[in-house]
Amino acid sequence: MNYLFVPFTSEESNNELLSMGTLWASQVAKDPRGREPPKLLFYNTKHMKPLNIINNDDTLYVIAHGYEGISDYIFSLSTPPANGLIPALTAGELSVRLKVAGLNANHRRVKLYVCNSGGEFSEFATSFKSKMRDSMGYPNIDVYYYNSSVSVPKEFADGNYHKDGVLFDAQGNVVLTPRFRSSEARQRVP
Predict the structure, then answer these.
(1) How far apart are CA 103 and CA 172, in angstroms?
(2) pTM for this model (two decimals)
């Protein structure tokens, strides 16, 4: 089973990410392969354990935004608001939120699905895995990240829905490439 987790509260402007998660689930529901849509969960300080329903072998996608050139944080908004204050989390803060939200200590697979990162996300992912294993007590955790910017599933020419990937050049401009599945840019943290 796949789960989508938004690590931000409603007070931290999580609406954009919740909309992305809802779109993701609805696109998977349209897929003719009959895959079960992922369940959308979010960090909520009033109901502290939304992740306790996840089995050890399920895949947990943490969905957030990234900004090119700022690889130490994940964000709740795709563009900065007028006041410039953007809710953000470090790798350590994210690991604490997963633990507080009830992720089982024997959980095995987390995929950091962060859009707009421009392929600069390996440091965050490595730090996150280290925090999960060394500080939070998740000895079996495998962490994956995407070496491109990614988006929710879209219909491809084969009629199936796949998570989409985008490449950026050194100046942050989208490189026009044929659409590719985000799994082609997925990396496992060693």
Answers:
(1) 35
(2) 0.88
DSSP string, 108-131: -EEEEEEET-TT--HHHHHHHHHI
- 58: phi then psi, degrees, rounded to nearest 5: -70, 155
Cβ proximity of 56 and 32 under 8 Å:
no
Residue 8: alpha-carbon gap to chain centroid: 12
- Judge contact between 27 and 10, C-beta under 8 A: no
Give pLDDT tens digits for 151-165: 787 777 677 666 767
Q: How many CB atoms lie within 10 A of CB 143?
A: 24
Bin 16: left if φ > 0, else alpha if -120 < ψ < 50, else beta: alpha
Distance CA 37, CA 60 (A): 13
3-state secondary structure of 52: helix
Separation of alpha carbons 89 and 57, rounded Å:
25
